[in-house]
Amino acid sequence: MAARPRFMGLRxxxxxxxxxxxxxxxxxxxxxxxLFMMVKANVQNTFSLLNDKAxxxxxxxERQVRGYLDQMEDAVVALKVLLDEDQITLSDKEGxxxxxxxxxxxxxxxxxxxxxxxxxxxxxxxKAPNGKLWPFRKASDVPGGVRHALPEVMPSSRPVWGPLVxxxxxxxxxxxxxxxxDGKPVAYLTAATSMSSLGDAVRALDEGPDSTTFIIxxxxxxxxxxxxxxxxxxxxxxxxxxxxxxRFGDPVLAGVPTGxxxxxxxxxxxxxxxxxxxxxxxxxFILMRVPITGYSETPWIIGQYFRGxxxxxxxxxxxxxxxxxxxxxxxxxLLAIWLGRRVARPLRDIAEQSEHVGRLALDEVTPLPRSRVxxxxxxxxxxxxxxxxxxxxxxxxxxxxxxxxxxxxIDRAAKAREAxxxxxxxxxxxxxxxxxxxxxxxxxxLLNEHFGLLVEAVEGEGGTVDKFIGDGxxxxxxxxxxxxxxxxxxxxxxxxxxxxxxxxxxxxxAAGRPAMRLRIGLHSGSVVVGNVGALDRWNYTIVGDAxxxxxxxxxxxxxxxxxxxxxxxxxxxxxxxxxxGCVCAPVGSHxxxxxxxxxxxxxxxxxxxxxxxxxxxxxxxAE
Length: 623
Hints:
Blueprint: H1 15-39, H2 41-84, H3 93-106, E1 112-116, E2 122-127, E3 133-136, E4 160-161, E5 165-167, E6 170-181, E7 184-194, H4 195-203, E8 211-217, E9 221-225, E10 243-244, H5 245-248, H6 251-254, E11 260-261, H7 266-270, E12 274-280, E13 283-292, E14 300-307, H8 309-358, H9 374-394, H10 399-408, H11 410-413, E15 417-429, H12 431-435, H13 440-460, E16 464-469, E17 472-477, H14 486-510, E18 517-534, E19 537-543, H15 545-560, E20 566-571, H16 572-575, E21 584-591, E22 598-604
Helix pairs in contact: 1-8, 8-9, 13-14
């Protein structure tokens, strides 16, 4: 007695019932949640406003800092162009100092411009806090001295920001570009800005007596603070800048490691902005900060904090009351996930396997499992049967041809028509003698390996394999996809086949197995291409005298180059369609069997690199 199918007799649930029940539950949960959230709308509004404020403040600070420093980069790049092109001559140091002085006077953001020659000697111009310019010919001439270590800069580098430099005049951010002449760096141009000047620009964003802006270098070095005389918490700073955060004496910044992260600021967190609640000296503060990279060896942290006693209390109170709403949301989400997975899993499997079918990657297709849902079970059975049929058909129809016909439309693309194509015919020299010493299985394996090399080369150049004839192969270009460069693609394919066969021969010889020689013929001409046959036995193929000429050219190889490992012969009709750069030599006019006239034959260089034959302008030589 035949085995009973596994799912026979089991009750199958219609998809419509599953979907209606699932979405009914989801709608009920959603309505309940909406009613609840309407009561809590004020909570969302509060959080939204606070998120927007945090984002606005921090993004404004970031734009201010980046805009300030990016203008320095732009100025340095502009000077680099003049120095690279020798419009500012480095050999004229006095002229260079005059030009640097003019550039420094015109740019309020730059404090120092200096040039370092290959010997490490430095000269440039320094702008004092009162605006006076100090040209210096060596670093010791500048008040406080110039302490500067060049960052690693390559000739092709963009502006490179070095580590912060601290001296008696303050803290300086610096950016360096190479001065390149004749492809070699001849000096380095560095621009520096005082962090106090940057601090003035950042302090302009300070919202008043209840907020403080700051910039921290790395994790602990405070370099900018908008309240350097009187802190929001009362009292004065304990140290001048730059200084470690703990030594500076700001209890709000010192409390960052133990601050409370506000999960309600998710919108800000998604943009990389960290929002903390900090208690200092009996007051609540809200601190917002974000890292900014690219202007020193270590990232900077820019931020602002402000008094937020009432806001902090409201956030804590609303967070507690939101627990109930959050619980309801979790239940609804879990329910939706469960139902969604139950319904979507089979559909997802179908979609994934259909994607493999669409690519005709039938070997990657996994049979769909049966389902208790009636409609899904029917789809799985039909899909699995379809894949089995496609695998059987794909065994006899070239995959590349199948894809092209599907893309172009089989009815239109496969209709027989006359077209100008380029054909390639290959044949193994003396294969009969080689196969005499092989078993049938070994002969089939050898041919399969050989045809695998040929098919890979043909499909790599967008060609179509027509058929295998014994140990030979016929391929063509220009159909079903129309292309003007069909001759170029065919020649590149022949050269790729030559390289592949020679590499394969080397491996055969190393393994003690026989190598093989190959003849290839190329011809361009008019043929009939499309479905040819009758009833249920149709072939997508090419027919015409041009096909015979291609085969005769291949046969001519035994006379033209009988000892070549790979010989490639092409007709004049193909050669005239090639762009300049094809390495070939004429072998004269030949009367081919079955032809009334002579054919001009050319021998292509079988060792030429296919990549060298490129029609850059999209025009063949004949045009």
